[in-house]
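Review form for a predicted model. The reviewer records the input and the model, then writes brief findings.
Reviewer: anonymous (R2)
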Amino acid sequence: MDTLGGAEFAPVMTYLNTSSCGLLPRRAVEAVHTLAEENASGRRGEGAGSFESVGAARASFARLAAVPAERVAVGSSVSVHVGLIAASLPPGAEVLFPEGEFSSVVTPFAVRGDLVLRYAPLDGLAEAVRPGTALVAFSAVQSADGRIADLDAVRAAAAAHGARTLLDASQSAGWLPLDAGAYDYTVTGAFKFLVCPRGTSFLTVTEEAQESLVPMHAGWIAAEDLWASTYGPVEQLATSARRFDEATSFLSYHGAEQSLALLEEIGVKAIHAHGTALAARFRAGLTGLGHEPVPGESAIVSVKGLTHRHPDLERAQVAVSIRAGYVRAAFHLYNSDADVDRALEVLAG
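Model under review:
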């Protein structure tokens, strides 16, 4: 199986670490370089970047997430988006998480000190929703081991008990189809499988959930009319989810515009088929070597008992990561059968 994306990617090693950070396509690198050069020379002028590029990235993500662009806010990190949601809950509200959930999803709620935090095993998360649960916050794909949550079951359980849902799609958006409109909120760090520069993130909010979400960090870019709102309090915030925007890094978003356009060209369906097929090949190979990878159909493969082999993989220029006692390998559009076979060859040695 060959790579997708053609000459857009040029890894110089066996790169299986997209769960930590995705590779940038050439077109994104060129966009960032161009803007940096314009900023260095003064040619870019006022603003040092393009709001049109931010808008294009927003619209592109909206299409990938199957929601209108009016429901998408842009920012720089998942934890800031989650903090906005955490601040909207009343004291004493119960928030349910999977055990071992990524800290950026949990901590903004924990630091409040006046919420009830509860945890359940991932495979029992739906059953753990109960009357009085205000919010279920969870990742579509777990960071530590690549397990995919039972999305339908959790949504159904939340709806049955009147709980809202917060989905972190950072480890899934870009290879696993995303229906963001099925959740009250989604948050996505775009520097992984969306192959955007770090410093790009997206928040989606349903129209109903927008009514109770206070734009606590609103600045002039959250105004309905930006250039009429640069001094004094903003008189009219954006009527869309743009009122929840953070001030964005133009360098990051100029690159993100290009990265997301590439993913749209290739299509998540094709990327999903590609990445999961490579992951299945790797799981089969690990099993053949006598190891027991975490089962499933995820594009992320984790296996315990091999962390001591990480230095061998590094020396062989095979990039993976270590998380919670697992060796974690992630397969994306720029990987091929040769990458799988190279990693297995090193582990067999």
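Findings: DSSP finds eleven helices and twelve strands in the chain.
Further findings: The chain has a mean pLDDT of 96.
Recommendation: see findings above.
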